[in-house]
């Protein structure tokens, strides 16, 4: 039993309830407090429709990849390959369009299916070969980095990228809303409906809550875990595609930084509204906290290194709040 668990036993019931409420609502309160503080300190630049839209647009890709990761984490596994996979997918989709002359829609479909295949490989290694998910996905991610360098020779693919592909990410096809925001809402909405409103989603949560009990209840635990990895892989592929479209190039390591951002958002989300449970809406809130934090730092001209410090601190706080909520829920 952890020291934190032991220490909470000595608290009064009222104090435990207060700590539990803090663990559940701290992220939302923190987000609102951050928005209020930045709005007061920079009333002309921060609290504007343009800035809020820009924040959503900039963080939409991180939300998509974090949404997929959420499914893998819900079933009790970790996917460390997502950032490397997204980088590879960005290179591949650009190469298929520019070098192989495939239609944009066909290239996108192929890459998304490939993302699902990579997720399938991750899932099979974890469930059938019984390799720890951290080791398995880190190994697969390293292989994907090598394949990305092999395909592009380490040189960004920029020449000949068609304007139509750029508009996939940069366009505003629906009521003037940036496409990335629309796609993000659709993806997160679909994932939320899957987990919260379907029988399959109940199985996913059951496997994450207690795999042994789920197996005794007749649930195919391995199949559910593999599904979590497949969804994570497909979301990573979509993120890589949209990033390549936004940048106008396929760059070998372009999406690598999304790995830390995604994990920070997911763990922040587990401390939102629920007692240490991972869920899609919470991941959205976690990503918003990170996005507005970065946005505020940029507006006030904070140096680049402060963003890394902020993100690292957020990850530590997120895991701490998640652990606190989980321990108090078991009191």
UniProtKB/TrEMBL annotation:
The chain crosses the membrane at residues 21-43, 55-75, 104-126, 133-153, 173-195, 226-245, 257-273, 280-302, 308-328. GO terms for molecular function: transmembrane transporter activity. PANTHER family: ABC TRANSPORTER PERMEASE PROTEIN YPHD-RELATED-RELATED, RIBOSE IMPORT PERMEASE PROTEIN RBSC. It comes from the Bacteria. This is Ribose transport system permease protein. It comes from Rhizobium esperanzae. It is found in: Cell membrane. InterPro entries: ABC_transp_permease. One of its GO terms (cellular component) is plasma membrane. Its main location: membrane. The keyword Transmembrane applies. The keyword Transmembrane applies. It is a multi-pass membrane protein. Keywords: Cell membrane, Membrane, Transmembrane, Transmembrane helix.
């Amino acid at each position: 039993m952890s020291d934190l668990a032991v220490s909470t036993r000595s608290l009064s019931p009222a104090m435990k309830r207060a700590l539990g409420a803090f663990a559940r609502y701290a992220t939302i309160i923190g987000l609102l407090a951050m928005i209020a503080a930045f709005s007061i300190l920079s009333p002309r630049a921060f609290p504007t429709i343009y800035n809020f839209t820009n924040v959503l647009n900039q963080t939409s890709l991180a939300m998509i990849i974090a949404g997929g990761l959420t499914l893998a984490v819900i079933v009790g596994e970790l996917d460390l390959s997502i950032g490397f996979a997204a980088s590879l997918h960005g290179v591949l989709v650009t190469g298929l369009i520019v070098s192989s002359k495939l239609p944009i829609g066909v290239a996108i479909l192929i890459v998304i299916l490939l993302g699902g295949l990579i997720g399938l490989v991750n899932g099979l290694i974890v469930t059938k070969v019984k390799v720890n998910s951290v080791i398995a996905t880190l190994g697969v991610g390293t292989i994907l980095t090598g394949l990305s360098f092999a395909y592009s020779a380490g040189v960004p693919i920029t020449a000949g990228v068609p304007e139509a592909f750029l508009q996939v990410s940069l366009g505003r096809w629906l009521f003037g809303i940036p496409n990335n925001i629309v796609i993000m809402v659709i993806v997160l909405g679909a994932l939320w409906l899957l987990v919260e409103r379907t029988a399959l989603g109940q199985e996913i949560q059951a496997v994450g809550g207690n795999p042994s009990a789920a197996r005794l209840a007749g649930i195919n635990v391995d199949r559910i875990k593999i599904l979590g990895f497949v969804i994570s892989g497909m979301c990573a592929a979509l993120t890589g595609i949209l990033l390549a479209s936004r940048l106008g190039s396929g760059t070998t390591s372009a999406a690598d930084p999304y790995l830390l951002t995604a994990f920070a958002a997911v763990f922040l989300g587990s401390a939102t509204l629920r007692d240490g449970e991972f869920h899609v809406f919470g991941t959205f809130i976690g990503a918003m906290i990170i996005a507005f934090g970065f946005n505020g730092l940029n507006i006030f001209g904070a140096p680049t290194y402060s963003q890394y410090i902020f993100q690292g601190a957020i990850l530590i706080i997120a895991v701490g709040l998640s652990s606190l909520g989980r321990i108090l829920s078991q009191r």
